[in-house]
Design a protein that fits this description.
With 298 residues, the protein is α+β, with helices and mostly antiparallel strands. Helices cover 31% and strands 18% of the residues. Strands 1, 8, 9, 10, 11, 12, 13 and 14 form an eight-stranded mixed β-sheet that branches. A three-stranded antiparallel β-sheet has the order 3-2-4. Strand 5 and strand 6 form a beta hairpin. Helix 1 runs antiparallel to helix 2. The chain is globular, with a radius of gyration of 31 Å.
Length: 298
């Protein structure tokens, strides 16, 4: 039986060694924080950051995914362009999803989802993973399925705790740590990347992206971090539901304003009539200033 390991994240630093954030791979680092340090490096050289970036809650909330930003992919949040039906629409490092949740409100999903190496002949050997490269190529018995399987009346099956990933292993096989891609291992001298299937067959090790999730873990938190775009999406999504209420409010306001204006005009005309009855001054025969003001409101 394979030994199980959990992912620990690396981190982004500046050239001067200033810490920015925990990260899964070098491409997660911005231009200003372009130095990626692996989990192995952190464990040896920066224990406080290592402890933070290996914490399970930190892992689950990493903004290290992208989005298949197209209608055909239903705007699903996922790990790699190969998990989209159309790779060209993939936008990496989106800010409104993490390894667990999808906060975008104009799609059908509340969680991030991942692709699947599907073994049609031996279903129990199928496994969720980061990208199609883990499936082993032709002849392996595995066929790659994207994050959204598009089965009728079904949700995509793969969450972060279902995910098997590869590992960086040293030349003596004495040290290893889980990683989502070979780019992570390239930052550590003497380490090479073993894919999921090779890791199992050669070292009897299984690496998982995150620990087992409960039903509560899969729910969107009450305190949802929102950007301006997300707030706009909320308005769009709720717009149809609120239309009747909004129209009713507008009609009520118009009727109230019309009543006020009508009452004002009657008052002005009453004053003019009284003035005509008591004065012979006929200089002003047009609309009074008060009446003009009220008419302009109409």
């Amino acid at each position: 039986m394979a030994s199980k390991l959990l992912l620990a994240a690396g981190a982004c630093f500046t050239q001067e060694g200033i810490f920015d954030k925990c990260a899964l791979q070098p491409r997660d680092c911005s231009a200003d924080f372009a130095v990626f340090r692996s989990p192995h490096w952190l464990n040896v050289n920066d224990v406080p950051v290592s402890n933070m970036c290996s914490d399970e809650q930190t892992i689950r909330t990493l903004n290290s995914l992208g989005r298949c930003n197209g209608r055909a992919d239903r705007y699903i949040c996922t790990s790699d362009k190969t998990a989209c039906r159309f790779a060209a629409v993939f936008e990496p490092n989106t800010g409104d999803c993490n390894l667990l949740h999808d906060f975008y409100e104009d799609n059908e999903f509340t969680n991030a989802h991942f692709g699947l190496c599907d073994n049609r002949e031996e279903e129990q050997k199928s496994f969720c993973t980061w990208s199609f490269q883990e499936c082993g190529g032709s002849g392996s018995g595995f066929q790659w399925e994207g994050a959204d399987t598009f089965f009728a009346n079904s949700k995509p099956p793969c969450h972060c705790d279902d995910l098997k990933i590869g590992a960086c292993v040293d030349s003596n096989n004495d040290n290893q740590y889980c990683a989502v891609s070979g780019e992570v291992c390239d930052t550590d001298t003497g380490f090479t990347y073993l894919k999921v299937l090779d890791l199992d067959s050669q070292l009897s090790i299984e690496c998982n992206l995150c620990s087992p999730l409960s039903d509560d873990d899969l729910k969107i938190p009450n305190e949802v971090p929102r950007t301006q775009d997300n707030e706009s999406n909320t308005t769009k999504k709720n717009g149809n539901n609120n239309t009747g209420q909004t129209v009713g409010i507008i009609i009520g306001v118009v009727l109230a304003v019309t009543g006020i204006i009508g009452a004002g005009l009657l008052l002005v005309r009453s004053r003019r009539a009284n003035k005509s009855a008591t004065s012979e001054d006929t200089e002003s025969v047009g609309v009074t200033g008060d009446e003009k003001s009220l008419n302009s409101m109409l």
